[in-house]
Design brief:
Keywords: Membrane, Transmembrane, Transmembrane helix. The chain has about 375 residues and is mostly helical. The protein has 15 helices and three strands. A three-stranded antiparallel beta sheet has the order 1-3-2.
């Protein structure tokens, strides 16, 4: 059985988790020597804004539920929007440990949710097909987001594949390109439609074995997610079945990006020397991203010794707990996973810092037990 444990927090406990993470992030930032008080304030505003936006989105969803509680057509849809938002926020808080990266995820999530609010408000309730279509779309999106959480916790299932990738020295962009061609998508990855990019990443996830064994994750029972979600996760999450709309694709790409990075990179061994190097490089007032990348790559070996690997590892999982934090985190993430690793790393002159980050998943487990 997997050592992972699926935790789904609802409204009140999600707020507790958001505040607990905020307090941990503020504490982790104390040792950082920022370049200026103004920059320190910018980062503190990001941390506080992340928590505030969790609260605000939950408040907006609850207002939507209350607004349509007596509306026969919209009531169930509004409730489904709330549950869906809770699932998305669980992913934001538990899976995106880097608060500067979570900021970008929350921006995409909020934009997507506001599109859904508008769709509910403008719904033609006299059209049975329109009502059914909107409810079904939200249900499918909700299942995808829950599946993304489960796949994130199923790292052991793709461990053998990840080790194989490291052993043969297959670069990330070649892994992506091979599966893009396999699906019959020509041209550059960055020029594909968003749902095509998602299908390529989904194909990698599937061949890695990541889809298997999800039901063995502790907490995955019919009381947590229905059997339909588990079965869907075991097989294929098809983004072609219903083209992502309501500005959902950008959020789904971030979800899949962190899954695919773990599929690809978990077989690599990052040493304490790499961690020490990036901490030292950024310890006095931060450092240019290019400098941090350079010292990391110099200490890495094999296919890990690339700029893409150093940046993705530092942003997503941390280098033995040391995360690269910067206001350009979202730009860097989009550049890597929007291009399938083909693009050069942008913003190399941008100032970044290195810091520990709270583990939202472990905190969620503790809060769930309260």
């Amino acid at each position: 059985m997997s050592t992972a444990f699926y935790v789904f927090l609802k409204d009140e406990k999600l707020r507790i988790l958001a505040n607990t993470i905020r307090l941990g992030e503020v504490n982790d930032m104390y040792p950082i020597k920022f370049a200026s008080p103004g920059e320190q304030l910018q980062y503190l505003r990001t941390v506080n804004g992340n928590m505030t936006d969790v609260y605000s989105l939950l408040d907006e969803c609850n207002l939507l539920v209350d607004k349509y509680k007596s509306d026969g057509a919209r009531s169930s849809i509004a409730n489904r929007v709330l549950v869906y938002a809770e699932h998305c926020l669980n992913n934001a808080l538990q899976l995106f440990r880097n608060f500067t990266l979570r900021r970008d995820y929350l921006d995409k999530l909020i934009e997507h949710q506001h599109e859904l609010f508008q769709a509910v408000d403008e719904l033609d309730t006299n059209s049975r097909s329109a009502v059914s279509e909107l409810e079904e779309t939200i249900r499918e999106y909700d299942q995808m987001v829950v599946a993304h959480m489960l796949l994130n916790l199923n790292s052991h299932a793709s461990a053998q594949f990840s080790q194989y990738i490291m052993n043969i020295g297959l670069p990330f962009d070649e892994l992506v390109r091979t599966n893009q061609i396999k699906l019959g998508y020509g041209g550059k990855f960055e020029n594909l439609e968003d749902e095509q990019k998602l299908e390529v990443y989904n194909e990698i996830c599937d061949i890695s074995g990541r889809m298997k064994g999800v039901a063995t994750i502790e907490g995955v029972t019919k009381t947590v997610v229905d059997e339909e979600v588990i079965n869907m996760t075991r097989s294929t999450i098809s983004y072609r079945k219903k083209k992502p709309k309501f500005k959902s694709a950008a959020m789904f790409l971030m979800d899949m990006g962190i899954i695919i990075w773990d599929v690809y990179s978990s077989g690599a061994t990052l040493t304490e020397a790499v961690r020490t190097a990036i901490i030292t490089a950024a310890e006095a007032g931060g450092a240019a991203l290019g400098k941090v990348i350079g010292v990391a790559v110099a200490k890495m070996v094999g296919i890990a010794a690339t700029s893409v690997f150093a940046v993705a590892a530092g942003l997503i999982a941390g280098i033995i707990g040391a995360f690269i934090v910067g206001l350009v985190a979202g730009v860097l993430f989009d550049a890597i996973f929007g291009s399938g690793g083909e693009k050069e790393i942008p913003e190399e002159n941008a100032r970044v810092y290195v810091s520990n980050m709270p583990d939202g998943h472990l905190l969620a487990r503790r809060i769930a037990a309260l």
